[in-house]
Design goal:
Elements: H1 3-14, H2 18-24, H3 31-36, H4 44-54, H5 58-63, E1 89-101, E2 115-120, H6 121-126, E3 136-142, E4 155-159, E5 169-174, E6 177-185, E7 192-195, E8 204-206, H7 209-213, E9 215-225
């Protein structure tokens, strides 16, 4: 089942028309129709919004992994709204069971335990050089293809944003496999290259419509945390 088919299944489960769902998410009426017919891809941001509004697992929508309906330990990594009264505190979600592979791709098939952590905003800005705070998640990298830039086992902070710029390091979903790679594309989106820092590893090249349709950017790496 494709993301488009899963979106249709979830929408019908909710008893909503394409127009009703689009309006709830703040889109024009044909947006959901275009996704369900394959004209446009389902983005992580839209999946995240559907999860927030309707408790439909965004991770299931994007990858088919897990269950359609959320439970306490099964969800797409999404940043919870900040509830701390201290305006200088930033909430980050840490997923110890989710990994992004620097080598050959990781498939995360089990339930996802989530721990919400509080960070001081000044620390994130001054020490880790993080500038946006609304959609931040923390996961682990496995593999050595991004060394020396990112080490095997290193913890990274990602901004949940599908709109990466050329040269940024991203968390990419390719056919349900989760990679951390350097992102490159042409101005017209006709090809994508996911490049490793370690020259012992090859580049993932996506050129055909089918390959590009299987690809999405989950987030952009904004900081890394190294344990000594």
């Amino acid at each position: 089942m494709s993301p488009a088919e899963r979106l249709k299944k979830a929408r019908e489960y909710l008893g909503l028309t394409q127009k009703e769902l689009a309006e709830k998410l703040g889109f024009k009426w044909h947006k959901i129709k275009d996704i369900e017919t394959g004209k446009h891809k389902l983005s992580p941001d839209i999946a995240s919004d559907i999860e927030q509004f309707y408790s439909i697992s965004g991770w299931w929508l994007l990858t088919g992994k897990g269950e359609m309906l959320l439970s306490d330990k099964n969800s797409l990594p999404t940043t919870q709204p900040k509830t701390d009264e201290d305006e200088n505190a930033v909430s980050l979600n840490y997923y110890p069971d989710i990994v992004a592979a620097a080598g050959y791709g990781a498939i995360n098939e089990h339930a996802y335990a989530k721990h919400t952590m509080k960070f001081d905003k000044t620390f994130l800005e001054d020490i880790l050089n993080v500038r946006r705070f609304d959609k931040l998640d923390v996961i682990k990298v496995v593999g050595d293809s991004m060394e020396p830039y990112i080490q095997d086992g290193q913890i990274i902070i990602i901004e949940r944003n599908p709109n990466a710029m050329n040269g940024e390091t991203v968390i990419a979903n390719v056919n349900g496999n989760i990679y951390v790679k350097r992102f490159h594309t042409d101005p017209f989106g006709k090809w994508v290259k996911l490049v490793s820092e370690n020259k012992l590893y090859g580049t993932i090249e996506l050129n055909t419509p089918e390959e590009l349709n299987s690809f999405s950017i989950v987030g952009i790496v904004r900081a890394k945390i190294k344990a000594f």
